[in-house]
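Question: does this match?
>
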Amino acid sequence: MPDTNPTGDWMPLTLPQLDFWEEFTFHPDQPVSTVAHFIEIEGDVDQIALKGAIDQTIREAEILSARFRAEDTGEAPMQFCDPDLVPELMVTDLRDKADPLAFARDLMEQDLAARLDLRHDKLSAHALYRIGDGRYLWYIRAHHIIVDGYGLALIERRCSQLYNHYCGAGDAGLPFHSLASFLDEENRYQDSPQWQADRAFWADYFGKAEGIEVLERGDEDYGGPGLCGTHSFPPEFAGGLQRTAKAVDIGWPDLLTLVSGLYLYATLPDTKKQSSDSLTLWLPFMSRWGSVGAHMPALLVNILPFRMQLENSERLGDFLKRSAAELKQQRRHSRFRIEQISQDQGLAEGSRYFFSPLINVLPFNSPAFNGCRAQRHILGSGPADGFNLTFRGEGDGRELVLCLDGDPNLTGKQEFARHEQELPAFLSRILQPEMLARPVGSLVGETASSAHLEKVALHFPM
């Protein structure tokens, strides 16, 4: 990485930012990478304290005021956190509307769908809609080049901490770290023995990989609507998830990732598998722990492959323990960027790995506002490849929601509808205590047979 601050206040883009910049150059007329949440806050809301907390949070999160510069000479783009571009919080009272919630959602959807030009436009927007006497919606939108989903969660958490402080409940806490401090840290990492060790790990890992698909930028299809579906798990599902995770001594997010991977192995076409006994899953890694990035909104999430290998006779419990240990080993090297791996593997400029199937488990607690009920709603998470599973829930697995996304060019509507029904049922079934002693091969075989029969029924109804 070049010097952090080579021209005064201008700084280089990170590797993931350069990847999104390249995406923008291929799709400049489409809002393909916008992320957005809104927080529904209801109760004894202090509007003055809430507005003050949001305003301070926006000022602290300097990446929200980023602007970019790209010279015509072919030099790399640069970024500057410009105090003059700090987003302004728009406060709007909608209580006079016939349906304030629907009106607010329409305003948010219009903003989310608007084209963003990384060279000229403000890349983040914030609005506070009052839709009832004690009911507010806080809307947060940004381009993915400046912030990821966890970064938005950090913003929400910081705002709630400041709001509670203004209401006399708790201290103000610490402000966010600066982007420059992270870039300095990243420079030190890239000059360290750890970077070399991480590079060697992934060179060896990819050296053993087979058939990992590559996507050309010009082939990305962001024009049409994709397939999407959601499923909310009942409260008792979290209990079963926690019990099974405890029984095999792994975290419940890893458990959910691995059993979802088994479902995909059983049901995806053989053409999507690298071999008869493995499937490559793409897993996001936050890459923040032990870094100033743990308390700094930015684009830091990494996406790395996990080659899930099956041994038919292995018991489910042993498969979960072994695979979780492999995930833990990968995390020791997860700061090493997929973009750097792509360069090391010789991918041509304008191409990247095809991140599908992707499983993303997000155990982020909703922010807690003093004397209020608060709930996070996801409006946009940026583009996705192929077939994706995203689980969102509280830190203990409660209020778990599954979002499925699929490319209709790769997954038919009937097949997608089957996944919507079969995946939640598979997860509930496989998390029963007696399943841990079952051979993995038998569980996968039963699921594959069920999927085959379902396909027959769809195409040849009785």
